[in-house]
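[[Sequence with tokens]]
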Amino acid sequence: MKFSDYPVHALMEIIERPPLVFVRGQGSWLWDSEGRRYLDFIQGWAVNALGHSPEPLVRALAEQAATLVNCSPAFYNAQAARLAALLTANGGLDRVFFANSGAEANEGAIKLARKWGALHRDGAYEIVTFENAFHGRTLATMAASKKPGWDRLFEPKAPGFPTATLNDLASVERAITPRTVGVMVEPIQGEAGVIPARPEFLRGLAALARERGLLLILDEIQTGIGRTGKLFAYEHAGVRPDIMTLGKGIGGGVPLAALCATEAVSCFAYGDQGGTFCGNALAAAAGIAVLETVLAPGFLDGVAERGRYLADALATLSRRRGLGEVRGQGLLVALELGRDAGKEVVARARERGLLINSPRPSALRFMPALNVSREEIDQAVATVDAVLAELGG
């Protein structure tokens, strides 16, 4: 079928989309309705941890769909319990609440921190967040985010999110007041153009939080579940958060997220938190399939190795073309173009069968499947090279 055969006019316009409809995916590849194949280095914004329609996920979903989909979060189900136990046993703190999206998990983290502040810090409720942070699209998570331009959208938003500068500990100290309950940070600011929080900064932040009696909240929506070469990005810095949020990759393409917290911080009372689909058996079965695959011997080492391979290939390209820095970790990597050509590069790469993303006008972001091959990395970098040559850069 041609693009014009699909009733896309019925969809609400929320983003500029190219005139194509995807109908099939396998591994690192997508096919549109006219049979054209695309190498996918977006993967749903780092969602498809194992690529499109991976066999473990397909099998888990089919088996679970035939058994139990959703018994209501008012009851336990076996898959949610198993997934929570897998997370906690592998560093995901002590308690888990499952949600449907990263924004929902972050909204829960904000609520949990404020509840803890009401109980233990005389009603403290402010959470320090960072310039260019991205935590979601609910009103509270948009207020916590500091994406340029969002301060003028959907006002009035929830108050209580003073701003600090990433990798500047002194700016965090200046933002702390008697009303502060915690600090919320992404180990890598993905939407800002893949800007890493330096390990020494995260260690200093953790020490400052302990010293001031504050909560350290890590948003690992984009970095968690193996994306950086470790199960959780905080492991690179050797810190441990009080609250952590997960999303995107944890479901491998199925809507699933998690709010994780230490036992001491898990202070929700009955009725404080919930959700119709939260922790349903189908999504939890998907999460188990993803997590068991990622935790298999050698898998994370392979992510780290392929991440270095991608970064090295982009660095070589950058030197040859006179571009900017390559930054990130594992398979979350950005290439700085040195000029605002990101949108044009993305469009021309798509015409050549490569899907990449430009989170900022001068940067390209690469988020392939965690099991991407070296050959696919070579093809993606060669395509970007060809586009840059075409644009004279």
Q: What stands out?
A: The chain has a mean pLDDT of 97.
